Amino acid sequence: MASGIYVRASAACARYAGSAVPYGAAGTKGALISYATRFSTSASGSLRALVLADVEPGTARLTSASLSAVTAARQAIGADGTVAVLACVPAKAGSELKNVPKNLSKCFVAEHALFSHAIPEHRAPLVVQLQETHKFSHVFSPASTFGKALMPRVAALLDVSQVSDIVKVESASCFVRPIYAGNALATVEASDAVKVCTVRATAFEPATASDDLSGVQVENTSHLLESFLGNAAALSTFESEDKVQSARPELGSAKVVVSGGRGFKNGENFKMLEGLADKLGAAVGATRAAVDAGYCSNDMQVGQTGKIIAPELYIGVGLSGAIQHLAGMKDSKYIVAINKDPEAPIFQVADYGLVGDLFEVLPELESKL
Amino acid sequence: MVRKVLVGVKRVVDYLTKIRVQADGSGVDLKNVKWSMNPFCEIALEEAIQMKEKKLVDEVVAASIGNKSAAETLRSALALGADRAIHVVTPDGDASASPEPLAVAKILRKLVEKEKPGLELVLLGKQAIDDDSNQTAQMLSALLGWSQATFASTVKMEGNTHALVAQEVDGGLETVKISLPCVISVDLRLNSPRYATLPNIMKAKKKPIESISVESLGVDISPRNRVVHVASPPQRKSGIMVESVDQLLDKLRNEAKVI
What we know:
With 369 residues, chain A is of the alpha/beta class. Chain A has helices at 2-19, 29-41, 64-77, 120-134, 145-157, 229-235, 267-270, 272-280, 288-292, 323-329, 358-368, and strands at 49-53, 83-89, 100-101, 106-111, 138-142, 162-166, 168-169, 174-179, 184-190, 195-199, 209-210, 218-220, 236-243, 256-260, 283-286, 313-317, 334-339, 352-355.
């Protein structure tokens, strides 16, 4: 079986070499030959970067964060590299993939009933098998909870050090990532043969995607699962989930976010934010204090330990702006702070600050929108 | 019944400290800063202690990897209720040069092997607040071939064979049933860590801390990722204060043009 895959990978290599002509090879024959030789002599075939894609729950639609990871991967491998995506989906959903990056070299699909839920023990061995066959130079995934749980497991199995939550690609081996809750940016040179990274979605534009897979070479890798999935299934099984249903935009990708803190005093008051959010078409976020006090659910938490967001407009209401919270929102384009305490640290990062009682300001703001 | 639980604790710059980046870009200034136990590690430790109080485990073993100062963190773990501690001593030197998560996971694997039999559960924080990697627990379970649960907000033991763990994932909670032995990384909402009482701090002085040199474990801790440069994040331009809701809306509509 392994040799069969290898042949297909080589075919992809030839296809890629052909399509390389428009890529600045300047039409000179010598350049083209050296280009083709480079790939045919490389053990990797034409596949260089693999992106482990996350799929939206209950669909076969790749998440926007996965598309951002594709953008980062393309930057890392340069114009002459190629990107492949691995999508693990529920049984028989491989042909229904949606929101797949355009100009993709290859899409690996693995279908199994166990893949209805992202359990790292079930997926990591598959990634390792693909890596052994294709020798990718880069393996990337979004730094969502999906990627955070899966990727270090993959990295350890490959005996590779991981670079988490990258916000910038400097070169094929050099990446920038925040440390100390975003209070410092470290530039890191990775020396391992395979660069394993998770990618902060808000730092990279999502790759252009299409629902049309006709131009993409799709390879079903489900047969690779046979050798390990029995053991992996025994390690961990999905039991239940409690997902928050909301008609509002998803917090991580919303253009406008209104966020509340302890200043709301209780969960009933916190709902005042929803009226404002509806007027603005915004998502609702919260500080850790608001979540811990039970005003709202924990998946709304913005911060170092919650979601990292960078909307065009962030409106923080009744929150002080603790370091932990700022780490999650300070890359927003415009920040508005509404707080009755003029000394609140949030005012130091706000583009527009309004000192006032949120219980007076919010209704007025909502009525005037 | 799980006889032993191993808890990894890391000494980090205290979470309330406003860190300073060194002007030459070599790193974060770690001189004269307050250090304390990583908050996520405190939660992992609290969970282990509560398990012991519920008689789900017999012994709580705390482990830390670092230079000699890490012993202070282990002493506080003992004061909080750990039974004994293991200190894997790394060469003294720049405190910022702590081993990468992969090396830490390999060291913890050695400790797990040393503590067999009876060790069926490792509890770790989901991330350290200095390097923000969020890797060690996942790497350790991979190296051991064990099951993993990450970002745990509730942990329930199911007899002697399994644990039910609710994980905080994007979009809500997801509960998995994992088989023992396992590695669990904990999230903030799992519990509220206790404070050490003075009598317990005194008692902790008599509890044993076993020192092991990292060399004797045969794990290579040399970094695979070289930090080339550390910089301060770009400063935001200071904004303006507005006097009224009308003025705010005017700015958002006509200056920022975001609504």
